[in-house]
């Protein structure tokens, strides 16, 4: 269990994390989702005691990281896959990590096997691809057989096969009753991996919900109509308190189903030449809910 309470981190003028509270439960994969710069890494670093919060607390199984008697046996973390000495072999890196944390070195072979690096155990980590580096980072995270895993963008740099593998591993670890918190800036990735989502934008909590619920809530339909009587339909929509946008001989009505708009037009005596519904993609919905948080969104397509 991870408990984050009123966590805030201020860097000069930037509120990287802003009064964030959430709970990460065991037995499921929890996705920590937000655009780049939203504050995910900073939050994870505070949970792991690598950054001091400006305000608030973060605990793992009820204790702050620095109060944990055997940290690696409680929580395994993957933050920056490049934090391995380039001249050390994969096995030596893990042996050193095990020895300095009171973990039997026999565990090294097990975790190398688990992440599929047994064949390159003796090779220098400096020559590893990004994907192999991620696997080595995961091996380090799993070394202490921890109850809690905190992984920052673990599929970064992995090929599709590697991504599938990480997904399966995370689900298996959660199924064993562990607490798994995994960050990503991609909703599509999290939708396939996580059970629950903690969504943040500009350091603040946007949603704390199940993946299924998030998808249901944010799969809004936009209804499009064309009519020779745009003004009359517009007046009827306004009278009903329904917002819309005009485009040529058509109207776009967000978050309203086609049935409702069709019935409204019929009752207003307006002929429609076209009535269609378009489901916003989940990625669009995610961008919309976090859009306050992105400083530069590029050109936005109106659908
Ligand atoms: P994410 O992991 O979601 O991409 P980060 O936690 O890395 O986001 O960053 C959140 C915000 O905090 C960003 O605006 C980033 O520039 C800022 N930030 C992060 N670390 C530092 C730091 N050490 N000094 C100053 N600003 C930082």
Automatic annotation (TrEMBL):
| Parts forming coiled coils | none
Highest taxon, organism lineage: Bacteria
Keywords for this protein: ATP-binding, Nucleotide-binding, Transport
Q: Where is the ABC transporter domain?
A: 2-227
Could you tell me which PROSITE patterns the record lists for this protein?
Answer: ABC_TRANSPORTER_2
| Molecular function in Gene Ontology | ATP binding
Q: Does the keyword Membrane apply?
A: no
The reply on keyword 4Fe-4S is no
Pfam families on file: ABC_tran
Among InterPro entries, the record links this protein to: AAA+_ATPase, ABC_transporter-like_ATP-bd, P-loop_NTPase
Which PANTHER family would you find in this protein's record?
ABC TRANSPORTER, ATP-BINDING PROTEIN
- Family stated for the protein in its record: Belongs to the ABC transporter superfamily.
Q: What is this protein called?
A: ABC-2 type transport system ATP-binding protein
